[in-house]
Each structure stands twice: as C-alpha cells, then as structure tokens.
Write a structure and sequence with these properties.
heterodimer, A: mainly alpha, MetI-like fold, B: alpha/beta, 25% strand, globular, binds adenosine-5'-diphosphate, binds magnesium ion
Chain lengths: 263, 244
Amino acid sequence: MAEVNKDTKIEVTDGALIPDQAENSIFSAWNIAFFGALIILIILPIASPDPYRDILKFIPDGILTTFKVTILSIIFALVVGLFAGLGRLSRIKIINRIATIYVEVVRGIPLLVQLFYIYYALGKVVQLPRLTSAIIAMTFCYGAYMGEIFRAGIQGVPQGQMEAALALGMSRTQALWKVIIPQTFRIILPPVGNEFIALLKDSSLVSILAVADLLRRGREFASTSFLYFETYTIVALVYLVITLFLSRLVATMEKRMKINGRT
Amino acid sequence: MAEHRILIKDACKYFGDVKALNNANLEIKPGEVVLVIGPSGSGKSTMLRCVNKLESVTSGEIYIDDDCVTAPGADIRKIREDVGMVFQSFNLFKHLTVLRNITLALTTVKKTPKAEAEEIGRKLLARVGLADKEKAYPGQLSGGQQQRVAIARALAMNPRVMLFDEPTSALDPEMIKEVLDVMLDLAKEGMTMMVVSHEMGFAKAAADKVVFMADGEIIEIGSPEEIFDNPKEERTKTFLQHIL
Ligand SMILES: Nc1ncnc2c1ncn2[C@@H]1O[C@H](COP(=O)(O)OP(=O)(O)O)[C@@H](O)[C@H]1O
Ligand SMILES: [Mg+2]
C-alpha cells in the first residue's frame, strides 16, 4: 500500500485565505473575487442609479453597526479568551474544569441559539438592550474560541522562557504576565485576525435581534421597496469586499511576522 | 556558619521509573568552581536543576549556605534570587531588549527603581563586553553575545552561586571563547560556580573540582588533574577516551 502522509492537515478556518496556486498572478482567485466585487459595486450605481444608488445610501449605517458589534465583541472576547486560556492551563483543578466546561458549552450550542438565549430567555430575568445582548452573546461565544487560541499561544512559547524567569526568582504569575503572555501576541495575531473575520460574518446573525447591522439595513430596505434581488446583491458584495480585504490583511501580517520572526 | 556554599546530601530524583539522580553527595565551598562531566542522560542537568528547584528532589537534602532548598516550607523564590542560572539555549526573553532582559527581575522581584536597575544593567553589559548592545533584541545577537547577556542577566540579581548548564554547547566554535572568558573572569572574582561542560581548557584553567557522573550517580570527584590525567574508575577512563 502506498504510504499515507499522516501529517496532512486539513485546515479550512473561517477567515483565512484559501491557498491558491495562482497566488501571485493577477488572475488569482482572490484578485478576481475582490476586484470583481469592487467593480460591480462601483458600476452598478453608475449604470443603474435607481435603485442601486439608493441602496448604497441606505446601508452605510449598517456597515458601521456591523463594525461596532464586531470590534467591541472581539475586544471583550480577547479579554474573556485570555482568562479562559489561562484557566484551561491552570494547575488548579476547579478553575481548569470551569474553563473547559465553558469551552465545551459554547462549542455545543449554535451561535444563533446563544443569541436568542441571551436576549429572550435571559430577558425574562434582565431585559438588556438588543445591541448589548448581541455583543454579550458574540463575546461569550468567541471568548471560548479565543481561549483556545490563547492556550495554544501560551503553549507555543518555549518552556525555557518560563524556566529562565523562575530561575531569576520571579513567581509563576509574574513570569506569565511579564514574559509568557507578551510573547503569545505574536503567535496569536494571525488566528485572532481570522477570528475577527469570522466574527464579522457571524455578526450578521444579530440582525435577528433587530440590531440594525448591514444585513438588517438591507432587509429594511428590501421590505419597503420589494427589491430583494438588488438589495441582497449589494449586501452580499459589501460583505465580500470587506472580508476579502481583511483576509488579505491578515495573510500579509502573517507573512511579515514570519519574516521578522525573531529567534 | 556552614563551611559549604552548596551542599547536596543523598539527593535522589525519579522521573516516573527513571532514576535521573541516584544518591548524589557533593559539597562545594564558597568560591569553588566545580565542573560536572558525564555522558548525555547521566543526570548532570537534573542535579543542577535540583539546586535551584527547577526540579524537586524525590529524597535527600540540598543546602545553599544555611538555607535548605528542599525543605517543604522553603522560600524558594528567595533562594532562586541567590542562585543564577545559565542555560544551554540562553533563554533570553525574546520580546525584550538586552537591557530590559537584565533589569526585568530587578524591577519585578527586587523592586529596584528603574534608573538604578538600568545602571546595574549597563555596568554588567560593559562587564561582558556588550555595552553597545543594550537596545538590541536577542534575535539580533549572535549566540555568543546572547549567552553573555544571559550571564549578565543572572548576575544582576547578585547571586551567591552561578549554575551553568552546558553554556557553550549550542555555540559555533568561534564563539565559545568569548563566553568562556566571561566565565573565567567570574571564577577569578571568586564566584561559586557549578558548571556542566566538557570544555577541557576551562576545566584546567578554572575548575577546583571535577565531578564525573554516569547513570544518575556521581562516580568520581577529584581535582582536574586527578580526573583527567589519573582517573581511578574504569567508567571515567572510558568516558574520557570518548571525549578527548
Ligand atoms: N522532565 C523529565 N521527564 C522525564 N525524564 C527526564 C526529565 N528530565 C530528565 N529526564 C531523564 O533523566 C535522565 C537524566 O537526564 P539529564 O539530567 O537531562 O541528563 P544530562 O543533563 O546528563 O544529559 C535521562 O534519562 C532523562 O531522560
Ligand atoms: Mg543536560
């Protein structure tokens, strides 16, 4: 039997750039998708101002809300994730257990259900504003993924760094905050970038809570104008341009860090 | 007052079923330089790492002066401040400048004011011949330079003892001398040193004692002349034939 390469890893993460053999040619998949979408977005309102110009005037508020939800959620998720990651590595059993349960719970419940749960079910106890609920749900969900990223990041810092810090008389906690965690940021930046893109796409789910994000604004426009095809074409293209742009950004960042990688 | 600086008494260390250190006994006086030699896997690193409790002994006792490292309630962080350690792979903090590498423990552990810590750091950098590198990051330095910074970093805490675990093994040959020279200076100044190394030149120039280990045991202890020129034990002879 032919030898099977056991090291083959199938990695299709949400935000990452898809490997492309024609990467450096002008006709790479990314170039075609990105510039194609961009050109359509520019040409449509020129060629046919009614309705495309109106649609494009109507949705920028939504884009802002989408970014607001995404950026706030990612910031909170980073904080939650740092503690979740530390918890997953903790030697204290109970903390370790709680962190692990958190991750399992989050992974096991669809994000849409988490959104509903935090807004409607918890709404019976405390009625939170829609936007707040949305951000809490996204944070809760992505905090768990960030936790796994932080855990891997911390484990990716060579053991010798901790030993050197301990040998100098530092406590484990001091070593963690002054030596280990600062070094994880380089390691986790690309995966965090990918999570950002994934979160941006998932943030369209908050439109279900009537948070006026990009998708919701599109829906509002479509439901009054009945121009479903035209509106959702624009909405899809705007999402596409944003996420493609961001994934290129993350990929470039990753490449840079590989080059500058200090040993 | 104890006569020894480091005292290792009946120290054993198991890793699961592996007996990495078997009944080690060793006394090192203040200012002595002790070289530890032996084949790979013979427990040299383990013995060194038990001295500053990077590993805990399974049984036995270890003292630094009158402080018992192995006592259950020992203030291990206080003891580690007094025991500098230099690693084979340098282990410099990659995200910090050379100067900050040296001052980090001073400011976080000893709460030394920043300006004072930097003054100490600069003096030490000058001492290891790297005064012009304080703003560099470890990745921008050669191996030899990194190891000299690592020595300066350990010295910053003003230790009573310095442990070296194969400090030159990861270096290109042309860089070994610059590190050994720093270590020789330290030895001359009276630092108590425990050095795992097979650098014969350093041994002859600076070592007061040579310890030969095999299979977790200390097989033979003697002056460099005794061990290198007239080893008593068969295993010592065989080993020396391999490395000479
Ligand atoms: N952390 C560890 N876990 C398990 N076994 C270990 C560990 N450290 C060392 N050992 C084992 O202990 C023995 C002595 O190792 P070491 O002290 O590193 O030897 P040396 O430094 O002389 O090469 C070896 O058999 C090694 O495999
Ligand atoms: Mg070793």
